[in-house]
Hints:
With 356 residues, this protein is an alpha/beta fold.
Amino acid sequence: MEKKTVLLDLCDIGNPTSGFGQIAKNYAEWYSKMEDENLKFHFLLPPVYEKDFGNLVETTHIRRKFHKYFSKGLPSVHLWHSTTQQQLKRKRGKCDKFVLTIHDLNYLTEKNWIRQQKHKIVLQHAINQADAVTCISQYVGKQIEEQFHLKGKPVRVIYNGVEDITSKPESKPAFATGRPFFFAIGQIRPKKNFHLLVDMMHYFPDHDLYICGDDHFAFSKVVREHIENLDTKNAYLVGKISDEEKVWLYRHCEAFLFPSMGEGFGLPAIEAMQFGKAVFISSYTCLPEICGDSAFVWENLCVEEMAEKVKKNLVGFYGQTEKIEKIKKHAKEFSYEKHIAAYVRLYKELLSLPID
């Protein structure tokens, strides 16, 4: 029997420091090694992205501006998987089945009303065309059901895979002072609430705070002003870091702090749990769902209360061996093996192929 071709849009692979870029990289690694008697895989890649993925997959490079409006040159496949909602900004090739993955609806809080409506129209059109709609948390699934007309079409929750980085190489960053420290990572945007962490450091004069991530956003200025005005001078906004530096920071931090109000999944919190770290999260969006009872929850994002919760729960935390092992076990629930297997089952279901 001729194999069915599944195309995965991996154009975000060209941006390895973003969450979508990390997902695309892991998809490429997993699917390029997968031998299936009924499926073969095809990767859609950014222009001039050069890498040999072996003979198990085919590849096509998009022309960014051209394929925003035209589908000529894109392959015809049995199933097309848009792995993020951002990929709706360009055309798709001809396909028998279409899978749409929605990671978040952050545009509802990040965009003005006019741009919200534009995003909603584009996404509604894609949902209408999709044979299956997937999302990365129950929280996002509920949002989709509230915001869009699904016409009886189910939204399937397939939790993100999180790469196990505990055995990856590490490198101590040049900015590390040698003092005990807290760690936070993410795009420096208002929804992340990193400015609250800076204010909180007034209560921890013997610790440092390293905030890492893409800092080209305008909100970085607000965070830097908070840092400049902090009397204890123990907070640092350091920009993007390498994978090796990230591993070192997870491994050596006293706690991972994540007061975000805008997450579809919250991958960094699970990465921190892989190292058995004390993780503190906000009570917003999907974070309590994803972290379960393996994280400490800030019910109120009041700086004084946040500091008190960190102080109270760090006392003796790393002496609780059983608790730490439970946290690590929770992180392993979000394996790429489980994630990819769920999608392969979905592809075969839609293509009427036998499921193992």
